Backbone:
């Protein structure tokens, strides 16, 4: 700026105004000149538009001078990466480039994989080649089911490197399907190229120990085997057995059982029945098997002497069904004790509790010895 010598006042200022603004009181920014000529700096506004610099006489509040029009436009993002021209804040990208800042190269990314198929968890090499400087630090290589169109949820992924051509090691995902590897832009989550489809197979741990078939990573165990890897032997038939075939009333009865899990229910139980209860409608005492393939139960002996049988009852089809039963078990009365054990001079009848005394002994407990009197013959 330059003004006539001595014409300024302490109220004068130089301000930046929108060209359309007629009010000279409110500049966007301003500075106060100290000398009759010199240079000042004004901050660039954040709003695009046509501006003027005006010298305002503070006493009269009128402009003394105007600058030429100044057009302020929004800067382009990353100056278009020198791969386009900036027009009023918008990048006009050169051929072979696209994106808000012309950072994305056009053309597909070439992807190859090796080997061409594999098992879940095995390593694979992914090789890619993309257009020069077309990558982004968030770009990634991802596994998708073949012919996928939604790239927001990959099965698994690895990040691409900062190189336009590279090979990366990755682990095949836990899935059994035809899959493709896509190069996905971290800017817009769109695929920029993909590999040919290839098969990933789910394997089973320990190959099911040779006792089952592997189906989509799950062991289908053969009859008689169970567990995640078919490593546990399981019964192939229902069985019940008793530890003793003759016990006293009230004595605990130990019962061992095996059950076929595929035919068992949570309601299965093992019960003692009278041998005459052929319809199995009246269990005398019972215990649940709790879906165990095998185990032991302790059942109380019935309170009445007689012959009984232990049965495995299942509700597999909604109705009680006898799967198997034990051999006959005899329940005996508790023996009655004789007084003083018959004093060791007789035999105790445990059914009645009465002593049968030996010759020469009498009394309820055979404790009294019979006295034998001598008799003399008298002749006339």
Residues:
């Amino acid at each position: 700026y330059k003004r006539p010598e001595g014409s300024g006042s302490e109220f004068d200022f130089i301000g930046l105004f929108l060209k359309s603004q007629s009010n000279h009181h409110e500049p966007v920014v301003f500075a106060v000149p100290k000398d009759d000529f010199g240079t000042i700096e004004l901050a660039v506004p954040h709003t695009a538009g046509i501006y003027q610099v005006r010298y305002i006489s503070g006493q009269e509040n009128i402009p003394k001078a105007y600058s030429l029009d100044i057009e302020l436009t929004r800067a382009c993002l990353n100056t278009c990466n020198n791969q386009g021209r900036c027009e009023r804040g918008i990048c006009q990208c050169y051929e072979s480039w696209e994106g808000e800042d012309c950072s994305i190269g056009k053309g597909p990314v070439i992807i190859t994989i090796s080997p061409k198929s594999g098992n879940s968890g095995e390593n694979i090499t992914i090789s890619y080649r993309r257009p020069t400087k077309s990558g982004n630090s968030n770009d990634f290589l991802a596994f998708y089911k073949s012919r996928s169109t939604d790239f927001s949820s990959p099965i698994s992924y690895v990040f691409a490197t900062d190189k336009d051509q590279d090979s990366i090691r990755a682990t095949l995902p836990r899935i059994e399907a035809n899959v493709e590897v896509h190069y996905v832009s971290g800017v817009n989550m769109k695929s920029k190229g993909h590999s040919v489809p290839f098969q990933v197979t789910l394997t089973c741990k320990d190959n099911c120990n040779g006792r089952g078939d592997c189906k989509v990573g799950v062991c289908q165990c053969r009859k008689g085997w169970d567990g995640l890897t078919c490593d546990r032997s399981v019964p192939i038939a229902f069985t019940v057995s008793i530890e003793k075939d003759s016990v006293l009333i009230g004595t605990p009865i130990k019962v061992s059982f095996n059950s076929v899990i595929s035919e068992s229910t949570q309601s299965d139980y093992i019960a003692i029945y009278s041998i005459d209860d052929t319809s199995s409608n009246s269990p005398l005492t019972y215990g649940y098997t709790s879906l165990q393939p095998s185990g032991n139960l302790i059942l109380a002996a019935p309170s009445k002497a007689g012959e009984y049988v232990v049965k495995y009852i299942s509700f597999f089809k909604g109705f009680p069904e006898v799967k198997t039963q034990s051999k006959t078990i005899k329940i005996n009365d508790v023996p009655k004790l004789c007084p003083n054990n018959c004093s060791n001079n007789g035999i105790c009848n445990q059914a009645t509790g009465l002593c049968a005394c030996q010759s020469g002994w009498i009394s309820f407990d055979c404790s009294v010895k019979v006295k034998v009197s001598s008799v003399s013959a008298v002749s006339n």
Summary: The mean pLDDT is 89.
